[in-house]
UniProtKB/TrEMBL annotation:
Amidohydrolase domain location: 42-379
Species this chain originates from: Stutzerimonas azotifigens
Protein name, per record: Cytosine deaminase
PANTHER family linked to this entry: CYTOSINE DEAMINASE (PTHR32027)
UniProt-listed InterPro entries: Amidohydro_3 (IPR013108), Metal-dep_hydrolase_composite (IPR011059), Metal_Hydrolase (IPR032466), Metallo-hydrolase_Enzymes (IPR052349)
Superkingdom classification of source: Bacteria
Amino acid sequence: MNIVNARLRGKEGLFRIELEGERIAAIAPQPSPAETTVGDLDAASNLVTAPFIEPHIHLDATLTAGEPAWNMSGTLFEGIERWGERKALVTHEDSKARAKKTIDMLVDHGIQHVRTHVDVTDPTLAALKAMVEVRDETRHLIDMQIVAFPQEGIESFEGGRHLMEEAVAIGADVVGGIPHFENTREQGVSSIHFLMDLAERKGLLVDVHCDETDDPHSRFLEVLAEQARVRGMGARVTASHTTAMGSYDNAYCSKLFRLLKMSGINFISCPTESIHLQGRFDTYPKRRGLTRVAEIDRAGMNICFAQDSIVDPWYPLGNGNIMRILEAGLHICHMLGYEDLQRGLDLITDNSARTLNLGEGYGLEPGRPANLLILSAPSDYEMIRTQGYALASIRKGRLLMQRTPARVERC
Ligand code: FE2
């Protein structure tokens, strides 16, 4: 299969992309628009990119909103309460069915790489075992990384350390954490030492729910970054959320940024979830409750956007469309300046790939996997402005999905 009349990000003119088996064989400039021949796909002067990435989602909780009760206040704390009720009803088959239904939604929107957190503060580790099976059974659709996520703490939950080690033995790819939720500051710090030791020992990646609060005194990010720096693990470590940074004063943040840059860690922001859940203790002025996305980006550090939830007790909306998150995030983070719009897709493609350590398994280069999207617009700017979408998703040289655009007829 070949793709003709393709535009590539950051390049002038049209290109022809040749796929051979499961690999990209060649990418060559096209002097003029080409006719399609049998077996070719016509990008019609639209962008062709590597797949979209969902770097932070909770597939074990998706599609549970309202079961057995709705979150009436919309707050994080009522969400935890509602999830406690739903968690008691989780079965192996129920977990697998909801995760697979959600993966289909992600695939329909051009996503082929997913990092999911799975709650391991459950002595049976039922959801984790289900997700390991889902990871195997959906390899034709997505590449999945599973994070061992201690929702109720590593130190504060009975047997928390053992459950984390068990989760890794069963097959988790990434070690998680939630230091700001531990009962004390000391437990938060020791949980980070524990999870970094575990990841280093097993050669795994790290992705910590870090300082997901408006509390300006929640400062576990400095501990995580310093641990990453000292161990030389920065590129393999991610700090998710870090929403407290939106409430840090500038003097502290200026000192913190020096350490963050030295550490080389990655960041994930979930803008729709954070604008919904944070700022809940404020009247007015009301904080946005997000990390400093633009400032992290401007400082040359790596940050990407994620959905976090789809129809669960914490967030009742979502349909798998990461472009929706990008559009909202750029608004919320004051990133609608001209230059941000020219490279907006970085936040759901290349930056996310770096976070997930995808290396040569990702990107439009000859020799790399023939995983790519044909989009509905010719540039990042136009994709964002027109609320564009993936028209086709190709994986290992095979069409996964094609979308027929809606037609409007003037009457
Ligand atoms: Fe999360």
